[in-house]
Specification:
alpha/beta; Rossmann fold; binds uridine-diphosphate-N-acetylglucosamine; binds uridine-5'-diphosphate; 7-stranded parallel sheet; about 375 residues; 6-stranded parallel sheet; 2 domains
């Protein structure tokens, strides 16, 4: 009898990182792969699902404007449990560290359904950084039956927490599967930067940066543009009201600063390719940019992705005006410092992560 696996997606990055796995599972004849969209994100989730031709079988339409964590968590838990009860899947798979993932793992635990965790084992070891993601992934990790660890270091973190070795599979990160799929399709979308100009691409959305830290980030962007007449900034603003209000209040109307709505994945990858430098607090961008040979200054105090930092192609600068300006200016002025960070390395995967995950599931259910 065919097995039933439910793949869950809630937010934009989950959809990007689950899409290659969903599409691989849909090609397997031993399994019925159903897609559950919690729609913790709405427009941003739909942008990605459309690109990868994924149509959710079940859509919980959870998102509300400026949703609080308590409201989100409680509604998700009730709704996800209702789906598990109706569908009775043989396994559930989810990716990462969002509230969707934490609640799905918990709902699986309550019903005794095996839970597979994609991108398992990332840790900063600081529960408040990133908040609430570090706690979300620790909880998901305590519950998981299969831990699909993207790197040796994430595998090591799980071993340190006492996860049995046989439950951990080193897969690489599925984000590289997705990136390699789209990167050849976006040549025509790479922004046309006027001769002599350099593009700085910015993204920001972390909850621990709301308020003063985010204002520091915006002030640093302003200083960089004022001090460098050849610099243009492209900033697709995350729709979270806490981000949107500050970004528009502090940066709109500035010369050579473009604020846009979130870009579809294809034009965003093209923008990364066209960028000279990226300033971001995003997890996914820290993984993709090194593979595209683009330096990233990370607008956070900690990262759970040490591999690219160790390789010297990503640098932590924090949400700190002086550091952001100093490090970005160095990369604008010093060609050899720039080249050292623009080498193009891919510590997060080889594009075959989904294949490895499917193989584990196939063998388990055989
Ligand atoms: C969420 C995740 C974070 C992940 C990020 C990726 C949690 C707690 N946070 O943060 O881990 O890194 O997604 O982007 O799981 N909104 C829209 N349209 C959208 C998406 C969001 O309007 O398509 C607005 C809504 O007002 C929503 C708010 O953004 O209430 C916050 O969304 P939420 O998913 O709670 O948090 P994010 O900051 O997006
Ligand atoms: N991304 C996108 N459009 C944008 C900004 C980002 O498609 O305007 C992609 C990016 O390439 C990466 C993912 O979204 O794959 C990262 O999402 P986000 O930063 O929201 O979440 P995180 O990775 O920090 O959880």
């Amino acid at each position: 009898m065919r097995k039933k696996i439910i793949c869950v997606v809630g937010t934009r990055p989950e959809a990007i990182k689950m899409a290659p796995l969903i599409n691989s599972l849909k090609n397997e004849d031993w399994v019925e792969c159903k897609v559950l969209a919690t729609a913790q994100h709405r427009e941003m989730l739909d942008q990605v699902l459309g690109l990868f031709d994924i149509c959710p079988d079940i859509d919980l339409n959870i998102m509300r404007p400026n949703q609080s964590l308590v409201e989100l968590t409680s509604r998700l838990l009730v709704e996800v449990d209702r789906v598990l009860s109706q569908e009775a899947p043989d396994a559930v798979i989810a990716q990462g560290d969002t509230t969707t993932v934490m609640t799905v793992a918990l709902a699986c635990f309550y019903r005794g359904i095996p839970f597979g965790h994609v991108e398992a084992g990332l840790r900063t070891w600081d529960m408040r950084n990133p908040f609430p993601e570090e706690m979300n992934r620790v909880i998901a990790g305590r519950i998981a039956t299969w831990h699909f660890a993207p790197t040796e270091s994430s595998r090591g973190n799980l071993l340190k927490e006492g996860v049995p070795e046989r439950e951990i599979v080193l897969t690489g990160n599925t984000v590289i599967d997705a990136l390699l799929d789209v990167v050849t399709r976006c040549d025509h979308l790479v922004p046309n930067i006027p001769q002599g100009r350099r593009l700085i691409l910015v993204t920001s959305h972390r909850r621990e940066n709301f308020g003063e830290p985010f204002e520091e980030i915006c002030r640093a962007i302003r200083t960089l543009v004022e001090n460098n007449s050849d610099v243009e900034v492209l900033y697709p603003v995350h729709p979270n009201p806490n981000v949107k209000e500050t970004a528009h209040r502090m940066l709109s109307g500035l010369d050579r600063v473009t604020l846009t709505d979130p870009l579809d994945y294809l034009p965003f990858v093209a923008a990364m390719r066209g960028a000279y430098l990226i300033l971001s607090d995003s997890g996914g961008v820290q993984e993709e940019a090194p593979a595209l040979g683009k330096p990233v200054l990370v607008l956070r105090r900690e990262t759970e992705r040490p591999e690219a930092v160790d390789a010297g192609v990503v640098k932590l600068v924090g949400p700190d005006h002086a550091r952001i300006v100093e490090e970005a200016q160095r990369l604008l002025d010093d060609a050899s410092a720039y080249q050292a960070m623009a080498r193009g390395v891919s510590p997060y995967g080889d594009g075959k992560a989904s294949q490895r995950i499917v193989k584990v599931l196939r063998e388990y259910f055989a």
